[in-house]
Amino acid sequence: MSVTDVALPAGERFPEPGSAPRTAGGLLRSLAHLLRDPGLALALLWVGLVVVAAVAPALLAPGDPLAVDTAAHLHAPSPGHPFGTDRLGRDLFAETVHGTGRTLPAAALATAIGLGAGTVLGLLAGFLRGAADLVIMRLVDVLLAIPGLLLALMLVAVLGKGDTVDVGIAIGVAAVASTARVMRAEVLRVSESGFVEAARTGGARWTRVVLRHVLPNSMGPVWVLTLLLFGEAILGVTTLGFLGFGAQPPTPEWGSLVSSGRDFLGSAWWLSILPGTVVALTVLAANRVSRAFDGEGTGPR
Q1: Distance between CA atoms of residues 244 and 87, nearest Å
Q2: Position 21 pLDDT exceeds 50
Q3: What burial class does residue 295 get, using C-beta atoms within 10 Å of its C-beta: 0-12 exposed, 13-18 middle, 19+ buried?
Q4: Radius of gyration of the chain (CA)
Q5: Where is the ABC transmembrane type-1 domain (predicted)?
Q6: Using alpha carbons only, what angle is made at residue 221 by residues 288 and 235, rounded to the nearest 5 degrees?
Q7: pTM of whole model > 0.85?
């Protein structure tokens, strides 16, 4: 994965991270540059709303998402019910908001597993090389040979199907390979740099070389990849929820909400379309933020 220019107005770029200390004023200027892009500003706003929904859903939807009202059976979207109601009269907006608290933590767990394990494997393969590199990369090749969703399905079938934690673990394991490949490539590049050779020549212990020089200067593209992995993890968790894995009804979760409306697409389109739109917008927003920060944090420290 190559590092490209950030998505800023023409002629504007982030400063190289190693070129100047990060002061509060510098961070504010960088944020101001980012917010000049309306698309990015909207993406950040949407991500913020989704995080609020996951952490404090009652702020956005104070009602009980499981409250049944048979008199409001399959009501279309209205001011009282922005997303309409489901077949039991439950408010779909409240279900979607409260379902964020299930989907997002599972996606965050998957991202943490993919980032953590992939970073360690890539670091070991790129720095140790030789037999360690050969064994680790053959393992990565095996993981890459299996489609990510199929691998996640296999793992979640073994772990169980009644918990979003199991889904998050399965998605995370499937994401390890891509992180490991990116990390290995960066470690190989950084290991040939002059400051790493100077540290080795100066007699620095290999642990200090790795932790002080190689690891920090290899993480730039990996941090960018993290946001992409997070978007993919949301999509993966939702897909498995749609297939019946993860949180079980009546517990609201994005995938199960989309799935529950598939039998009513002709008469109650909002049951699947509106939660599905929330999923799509969240994934697109995460990818947009990732593109904006692509290239930040790759200079030597």
Answers
A1: 19
A2: no
A3: buried
A4: 22
A5: 100-290
A6: 45
A7: no
> Other C-beta atoms within 10 Å of 68: how many?
14
Q: Domain map of the chain by residue range? A: 38-293
Does residue 199 surpass a pLDDT of 80? no
CATH 1.10.3720.10 for the 38-293 domain, yes or no: yes
Q: In which element (H, E) is residue 146 found?
A: none
pLDDT at 301 over 80: no
Residues in the chain: 301
CA distance 16 to 222: 17
> Distances in Å between the alpha carbon of 7 and those of 38, 45, 155, 292?
11, 17, 37, 5
Task: Give the 3-state secondary structure of 49-72.
Answer: HHHHHHHCHHHCCCCCCCCCCHHH
Q: Is the pLDDT of residue 12 over 80?
A: no
DSSP run (H or E) holding 215: helix 215-218
Half-sphere exposure of 3 (CA within 13 A, CB side): 22
Residue partners of 72: CB distance under 8 A and separation at least 6: 81, 85, 89
Q: pLDDT (tens digit, 9 = 90+) per residue, 253-281?
A: 999 999 988 888 888 999 999 999 999 99
> Do 289 and 231 form a contact (C-beta atoms < 8 A)?
no
Q: Does 17 have pLDDT greater than 90?
A: no
Check whether 111 has a pLDDT greater than 60.
yes
Nearest-angstrom CA–CA distance, 109 and 225 = 15
Give per-residue pLDDT as tens, 136-166: 999 999 999 998 889 998 888 888 766 788 8
